[in-house]
Amino acid sequence: MTDAAADPRARVLEAADALFYARGVAAVGMDEVRGAAGVSLKRLYQEFPGKEQLVLAVLDARHAFWEEGVARAAARATTPRERLLSVFDFLEDWFAGDDFRGCGFINTFGEMGAQSPAVAEAARAHKLAFRAYLQDLTVEAGGDARLGAQIALLVEGAQTTAAFTGTTEPAAEARDAATTLLDAAVRG
Predict the structure, then answer these.
(1) Into which CATH architecture does domain 51-187 fall?
(2) Where in the chain is the domain with CATH 1.10.10.60?
(3) Would you indicate the residue range of the signal peptide (predicted)?
């Protein structure tokens, strides 16, 4: 994001993201976001005419955070196989954070997906983009697109399990399962 101190929009997004992620979208009102961001109510509504627009902007920023984090992890790898498995290193680092509360897209979809087609579509687009990314990495590593979709399921399960257990172990467990699947596919 931009320098949040100088940019009211960025301050609102940062405050909304932290509040929504920690407590849920429904539990946080626009006035609370305004207060946390240190902007006037008029300015908040100039930037985001309604809560749905704010939620969509937060999801867009989360998507960028996710893609940047996964890309940084992959950039440290030297082989296609390592690039694919680096996703689990990213997960482990993310799960270790004090503020980890599971996948923001799953959480928001669970709260708003039935009432907001736009929020449901944003969550769906994020998950499909990540699935396609894993499918591409899997093909580069010697597997096929179907295996990439299976590895995406391992990632999703690791996120949910880590949120419930409060540990980083699901990242390593999912990585082990992905390694087993990849080894079987490449041998076969």
Answers:
(1) Orthogonal Bundle (1.10)
(2) 1-49
(3) none
Instruction: Please say whether the beta carbons of 44 and 30 come within 8 A.
Output: yes
Per-residue pLDDT of the chain (188 residues; tens, 9 = 90+): 445 567 999 999 999 999 999 999 999 999 999 999 999 999 999 999 999 999 999 999 999 999 999 999 999 999 999 999 999 999 999 999 999 999 999 999 999 999 999 999 999 999 999 999 999 999 999 999 999 999 999 999 999 999 999 999 999 999 999 999 999 998 86
Classify each residue of 66-96 as buried b or exposed e, where b means 16 or more C-beta atoms within 10 Å of its C-beta: beeebeebbeebeebbebbbbbbbbbbebbe
Would you say the pTM of this structure is higher than 0.85? yes
Which residues of the chain form CATH 1.10.357.10?
51-187
